[in-house]
Design goal:
Elements (H helix, E strand, L loop, with lengths): L1 H6 L2 H18 L6 H25 L1 H4 L17 H22 L2 H21 L6 H10 L1 H10 L4 H24 L1 H7 L9 H25 L4 H24 L2 H24 L3
Helix pairs in contact: 2-3, 2-8, 2-13, 3-5, 3-6, 3-8, 5-6, 6-7, 6-8, 7-9, 8-9, 9-11, 9-13, 11-12, 12-13
């Protein structure tokens, strides 16, 4: 069981499932269909777990070179690539089947699209170009849209706004991690930072946290969140932006860790606020 949880990157998978569920609840109008809600949660959990497992299958050699990943099931020898591929395939098929049967076709297609981009575009591009982060942010921002579509049956303005928030959020979150683990990523041959110069990376990080601020205000401006969400989103966005400025000043691992922690608090906080103060 421990190997399975590590194979599907259970912490990342849990976050993705959480954002999917929040997308569903924020979009929900009318009575709660618990069976449909649980179906989208289980379906997305399986598809995301499959994507993370396939990512580890394809990156097994690179994972073996990195301190933070060398104990994962495949590089550590606790699980074969064949077994991991089988698990991923079964999870993918089951997840898509559940979404198609019990949710809707659009949620199924979006889930499959996210899987394909993550596994067959983002994963190989990590060795080729820093643009991989931009590509990877696309499937990373689709989950709340899946949740929204599961509840409403269509892609609406609210779904696109949630996509934008989660899309922009991923850059400061991932780049802060990449700065902390820069030596590891270089050892594995991954080109995930926008520049080899840490200060240039910090400048890019500041730009994305700045863009995230107006995007996080869009739910209130679009009319599906209230004034409390607007106020707290403003304060949270400003604090997040200020933290990125601190990183730009000293370009230190300590500041990068603060950005990472701030990002991990910021996204759940914004989504919970949008749910509580939805209009």
């Amino acid at each position: 069981m421990v190997e399975f949880l590590h194979l599907i990157k259970h912490r990342l998978t849990t976050l993705v499932v959480f954002t999917t569920g929040m997308g569903y609840l924020i979009a929900l109008r009318g009575g709660m269909d618990w069976f449909r809600f649980l179906s989208v949660i289980v379906g997305v959990f399986l598809v995301v777990g499959a994507a993370n497992a396939m990512n580890q299958v394809l990156e097994a050699e690179a994972d073996g070179k990195m301190k933070r990943t060398m104990q994962r099931p495949i590089p550590s020898g606790k699980m074969s690539r064949t077994k991991a591929t089988f698990i991923a395939t079964v999870m993918l098929i089951l997840g898509l089947a559940i979404l198609y049967k019990f949710v809707n076709l659009l949620s199924t297609l979006l889930s499959f699209l996210a899987f394909v981009i993550y596994v067959f575009a983002y994963t190989p591009l990590k060795r080729i170009t820093p643009l991989c982060t931009f590509v990877g942010a696309i499937p990373g921002a689709i989950p709340p849209v899946i949740g929204w579509v599961a509840a409403s049956g269509k892609i609406e303005v609210g779904a696109l706004i949630l996509f934008g928030i989660q899309f922009l959020w991923q850059f400061p979150h991932f780049w802060s991690i990449a700065l902390i683990c820069k030596a590891d990523y270089e050892r594995a041959g991954f080109k995930v930072l926008p520049s080899e110069n840490d200060r240039v990376t910090a400048i890019n990080l500041v730009i994305y946290t700045f863009m995230l601020l107006p995007m996080s205000l869009m739910p209130a401006l679009a009319g599906f969140a209230g004034k409390y969400a607007f106020i707290v989103s403003s304060l949270g966005g400003i604090l997040f932006f200020v933290q990125s400025i601190m990183l730009l000043k000293d370009v230190s691992v300590k500041s990068a860790k603060k950005i990472m922690l701030a990002a991990e608090v910021y996204l759940p906080l914004i989504l919970i606020l949008l749910l509580i103060d939805r209009v």
